C-alpha cells in the first residue's frame, strides 16, 4: 500500500542531474548575453567570493 521508494543515493543523483542541467542552461544563456544585468552582477559577485575563499582556504588549513 505504499508508494515505491528510491534510495538516498538515487535521490541525490537525480537532484544533482537537475542542478547540473540548470547550471548548463544558465551558463549557455550567460555566454550568449541573455542574462538580465542584475543576474549577471550577482553571478560576478558570487564568483568573486568563491575566488576569495579558494585563496584564503589554504591559510586557514595551515593555522
Please compute the radius of gyration using only Cα atoms: 18 Å
Distance between the amino and carboxyl termini: 55 Å
What global shape is seen?
Answer: flat
- Fraction in beta strands: under 5%
Major pleated sheet: none
Q: SSE string, helix = H, strand = E?
A: HH
Helix-strand layout with pairing:
Elements: H1 8-31, H2 37-62
Would you give an account of this structure?
The structure is a single chain. The protein is mainly α. Helix content is 79%, strand content 0%. The protein is built from two helices and no strands. It has helices spanning 8-31, 37-62. The radius of gyration is 18 Å and the shape is flat. The N and C termini lie far apart (55 Å). The model has no long low-confidence stretch (mean pLDDT 90).
In short:
By secondary structure, this protein is an all-alpha fold.
Top keywords for this entry?
single chain, 63 residues, mainly alpha, 79% helix
Amino acid at each position: 500500500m505504499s508508494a515505491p521508494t528510491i534510495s538516498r543515493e538515487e535521490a541525490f543523483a537525480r537532484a544533482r542531474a537537475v542542478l547540473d542541467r540548470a547550471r548548463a542552461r544558465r551558463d549557455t544563456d550567460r555566454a550568449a548575453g541573455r542574462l538580465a544585468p542584475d543576474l549577471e552582477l550577482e553571478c560576478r559577485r558570487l564568483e568573486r567570493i568563491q575566488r576569495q575563499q579558494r585563496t584564503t582556504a589554504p591559510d586557514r588549513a595551515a593555522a
